[in-house]
């Protein structure tokens, strides 16, 4: 016997079927739920990724920008393939492939060589550098490294190289998004503030949003208003690019010039208050014009608030087209409310999505029965509770902060709901509970084109209501007895 | 191995070298010097690698490679179905590799199989104070909540090695306390140059902690074999295993697709190890050969030509009973395979394919394409070693381009020059080429299809290749205006 654990040699055994059956039932029980919720160290099926993923999404949102991972190449491959799978689009990014010697000597040589090669091969207008674990643990000094790269003429002196520290052992992808965004804006706007100048534009910060349709929707709404805008930052075209026989490595993104001038904007609105607090605080201190932080406009009420805010900031009437659009969305809602009213949902996701889901469900007369966030703050909990308290449909609904999708499974198995709103990772819990899963969040690896359908604005309401109600009707058609199978629903 | 040297019309060593030189001309001097030895025309007659491999990735070039952790979690350990695999460190690595390899598994999820993400979700304080105490608690919790898990693997992510945690002693103590095998695997992503070292480290942990700790309950027989290096992508193992059983072999364990820990632990008693993915598991085959005298044989279950060759080679290792069954199986399936070829070959004959996959398929699948009448005009690996490229040389037509760990820039350049009708590579490459209007199939994950192994697999492979190459959607790419 050679094993290092000193294990005794035993026969190969099969678990008896009755034991499998016992455990199968046990994991659905109240007793198991208690044990499960008592976990202190083990995380099972978390609903969040790490900071650099969000940083990469942000980097892709700027014109001609190459995301650059300072760290191991495996990290870059993981972020890239995650974005590839969700958007079904290319996600070009490089890494400086740090390895063991980087751990000993630091990553400056890798960074410099990487910058030189990346500039030569991919000719970026900007390189956005962010970090994975290794340089964070060994304490690489990015400020010095990048300064040195310019001093040694490894990269052109005028090449913009914003950088962000995005340690994976802190926060989630939304925090990486925030750090990268503030760094890019600080870099691009440096020295661009002009006394007395006003672009007349609104700066819209959608936050760490993985739905390309949302970005298009913001732009469409503002066009209807006749309000000029700069989206900070716009990943809509990057990850929804045409298939026309040519590959454009930089398919979209906010123009660097527009981002630079955004500091002279008439107003800045963040619609991702939980995904961009750092950015917003910095903007408040540095940007001209008015500054507004408000919820992601999901559902009628939150969209109304956004529309009214734009009208107020720009002294404009809400245009007739948007009034009609609201009317049509409300028509869709009232026409179909009966299929959602009173239905119980379990919802989970990033904070900005969560406040949207909850608000939308409550206004439909549905119940967000289990609300779960795998990295949530007291502030988020309070905001969600306020939403619940403001509606009779919020009674009995519970908020679970810093819990994972194995907790969610216990919840939906012991205290049943009609559906889950989340992302692909919820599919095991949904299957075990025998209920549908609505994939409005991120990531979606197992359905096509979801990211092209906005979930914000009035159009988002129509999309969500349609998908949810038709699914419930499908279930009825698929499962009812023959005698109840009828033409109309 | 093919005995005839093939060529592709219009491709010579000179034309390929010119194409390589053109791609390299964009590099700065240092980058060019580093990349040059990794790109070369194939020398089919030499039977030798024409490129250098298993070297550090050049920074900044956009490589497709992953890391040692990816090789351990995604490839070797992750597919074992009756274990809890803990991604030890920050949340990301485990999250990105959760369900993204398609190593299917039998069992009841969360009860007797664990296609889930288990992590210690390191926070700042774990980096500062170390994660060993957390690991100990976590192992206990995993054992209590998943009592039917036969063991736990602890797969280290970068910070664990950098801060000097001692997962080995935690695993040893917890293993004793909980009375289940807990295997520490020091597969931090910064180790080595690619996934490959992760495979090696994982093989070593199987050697050090697992093998020989179990014995099969039933007496051993003359036809006991193990299926090594098949990860059950899209059900490959189930297809391969049924074919091996049909020729009379007794598949005692599978490494590691749909694998079971205890059966893997008892593999030291089989008579022959059959290895599909040489790159990721040759290490343990060699250990079992040296230590227990178990011979091993590489085989190839892609496409009827290679399957036939492989089945006969396997038969040669056994008596007439098996040999006869091999011939019966070949006779049974070949007409079915011919019907498939008759259906698809007219639409695929002479079409060109380029490949870039991990460590096996860039050579192993060439025969299957050739069965359909297609030519491989370029092939390369993310993380192969010299012995893989040696094995590749005779499989590829002479003079075609061989690329090791190519950058996306090089791959795109080659595709633009060679104008292939199909590219078989990974998710990171897929949409780049599809935007260019080039048909593409993911060759790591079978593009959410499969199995591709065995006779059953070839029918699906042929259908998928035809579907990709001949889809009418490609005709829509160019607008008429």
Q: What does the model show?
A:
- The complex is a heterodimer of chains A (489) and B (481).
- In chain A, the strands form three sheets. A five-stranded parallel sheet of chain A has the order 13-12-11-14-15, sandwiched between helices.
- Chain A is of the alpha/beta class and 489 residues long.
- Chain A is globular, with a radius of gyration of 24 Å.
- In chain A, helix 3 crosses helix 4 (73-87) and helix 3 packs parallel to helix 9.
- Chain A has 19 helices and 15 strands.
- Among the domains of chain B are: 13-62 and 334-476, Nitrogenase molybdenum iron protein domain (Rossmann fold), CATH 3.40.50.1980; 68-192, Rossmann fold (3-Layer(aba) Sandwich), CATH 3.40.50.1980.
- Helix content of chain B is 44%, strand content 14%.
- Chain B has 20 helices and 15 strands.
- In chain B, the strands form three sheets. A six-stranded mixed sheet of chain B has the order 1-13-12-11-14-15, sandwiched between helices.
- The model of chain B has no long low-confidence stretch (mean pLDDT 97).
- Classes of the chains: A alpha/beta (489), B alpha/beta (481).
- Chains A and B meet through strand 1, helix 1, helix 2, strand 2 and helix 4 of A and helix 3, helix 4, strand 3, helix 5 and helix 6 of B.
